[in-house]
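$ ./design --mode recover --in tokens.txt
reading tokens...
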């Protein structure tokens, strides 16, 4: 796209707000060009008529081009945002639509087990559900492939092989309800990204609303002793505060699950299950339908006295039940057996004090939608921009068995001594013909049983691999062969 001056940019931006059904343009153009006046011989058609039609056709395609820019036109995107990794990105411009949300991969580049992707989300329903807080969270996913047996590196538990990513929202366009993102993706070396690159999401989080110390309209003066049930240690799945000292090794009395009152912002998926006094202490039990992605999260319940002072709970217990509200046992069940989740908060108050206190709710409510967004991007071969080290290199208790360097950073795999692995904290620099570039620790994974690791270090802008002379890890210089 040529460089625009201020007036051209204004015109371009106005055209970008126009929506056109491009599917009908081709037929309309053919119809206009093939019209014939039955009273006028073809040879008598004036030249200006066809020129006018051509001008109309050109204006139509200008509008279509502007609309395409709104949808993620590659050149428009690169000019508008000038992203850090723009000069290595290939245009993709493919999208999928699910639940009224269009996910488009505008451009991307992949180097074996690393990739940078520019994508957008757009609400095409007109409901403007996307916000500046729209996020993929754990719904984002990428497809990986397994190396052939002869190329498998090291001995590692397959369960620890995974991927991670850094996500940054570049811009949110309120007028078109479109969010633009940069993703920097890294997989473990043994599981490179699939070819072609395939990514997507199983859910999209639109927004979240946070509530802090919001009063719950339940008069505590009427609270009394209530039905309880005894559970053993293996039926308690977790908790907060000093719960370990309370229930460890003996049976514990908890409230019988019920439906005492509605919960602020619970949307019928979360409720006050029961309230009562057990052994002189106030117990407040909340319930929710387990494994609901959207709606209220697991809140905290606290108390406030008549002067507004916050009184936190002493401890809490986490319990799970099946569809019949039978408590699950951690030794015989897993999370897939759970239908309901309960958390019981215990306060050091007795009946005589309750009239002076108010229950308070602190939590977050998420909105979003589930679906199956998936986009496949065909990219050119980038192997020439990857430098590989396959020999063992020992550095301060670590053995680097395999390393790769590409324009997105450094990846290393190997083994470590001792109980803990801190290789991601290593100071990594790249020595180039133009000077020294320091990388940032990007994370990784480790297998404590086999004492093996996979770690990565990132860079802020593309590295010119052909200018690299060596990598330096904690002052150990490793030259390019």
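writing sequence...
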């Amino acid at each position: 796209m040529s460089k625009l001056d201020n007036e051209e940019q204004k015109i371009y931006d106005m055209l970008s707000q126009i929506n056109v059904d491009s599917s009908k343009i081709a037929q309309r153009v053919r119809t206009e060009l093939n019209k014939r006046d039955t009273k006028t011989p073809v040879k008598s058609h004036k030249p200006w008529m066809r020129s006018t039609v051509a001008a109309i056709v050109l204006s139509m395609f200008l509008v279509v081009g502007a609309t395409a820019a709104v949808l993620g036109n590659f050149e428009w995107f690169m000019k508008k945002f000038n992203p850090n990794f723009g000069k290595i990105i290939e245009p993709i411009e493919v999208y999928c639509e699910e639940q009224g949300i269009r996910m488009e991969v505008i451009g991307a580049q992949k180097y074996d087990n690393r990739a940078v992707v520019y994508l957008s989300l757009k609400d095409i329903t007109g409901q403007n559900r996307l916000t500046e807080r729209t996020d993929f969270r754990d719904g984002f996913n990428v497809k990986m492939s397994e190396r052939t047996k002869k190329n498998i590196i090291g001995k590692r538990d397959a369960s620890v092989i995974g991927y991670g990513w850094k996500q940054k929202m570049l811009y949110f366009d309120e007028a078109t309800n479109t969010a633009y993102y940069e993703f920097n993706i890294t997989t473990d070396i043994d599981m490179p990204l699939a070819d072609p690159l395939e990514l997507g999401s199983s859910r999209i989080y639109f927004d979240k609303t946070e509530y802090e110390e919001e009063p719950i309209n339940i008069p505590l003066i009427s609270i009394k002793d209530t039905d309880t049930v005894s559970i053993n240690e293996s039926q308690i799945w977790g908790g907060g505060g000093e719960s370990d000292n309370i229930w460890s090794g003996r049976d514990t009395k908890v409230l019988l699950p019920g439906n005492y009152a509605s919960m602020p912002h619970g949307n019928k998926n979360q409720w006050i299950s029961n309230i009562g006094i057990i052994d002189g202490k106030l117990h407040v039990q909340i319930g929710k339908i387990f494994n609901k992605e959207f709606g209220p999260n697991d809140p905290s319940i606290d108390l406030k006295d008549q002067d507004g002072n916050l009184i936190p709970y002493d401890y809490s217990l986490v319990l799970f039940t099946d569809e019949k509200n039978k408590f699950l046992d951690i030794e015989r069940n897993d999370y897939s057996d759970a239908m309901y989740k309960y958390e019981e908060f215990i306060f050091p108050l007795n009946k005589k004090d309750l009239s002076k206190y108010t229950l308070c709710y602190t939590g977050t409510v998420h909105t979003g939608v589930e679906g199956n967004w998936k986009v496949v991007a065909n990219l050119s071969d980038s192997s020439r921009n990857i430098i590989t080290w396959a020999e063992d290199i020992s550095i301060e208790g670590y053995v680097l068995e395999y390393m790769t360097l590409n324009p997105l950073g450094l990846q290393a795999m190997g083994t470590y001594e001792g109980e803990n692995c801190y290789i991601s904290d290593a100071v990594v620099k790249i020595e180039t013909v133009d000077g020294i570039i320091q990388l940032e620790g990007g994370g990784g994974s480790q297998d404590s049983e086999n004492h093996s690791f996979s770690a990565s270090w990132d860079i802020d802008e593309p590295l010119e691999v052909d200018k690299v002379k060596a990598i330096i890890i904690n002052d150990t210089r490793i030259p390019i062969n």
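exit 0
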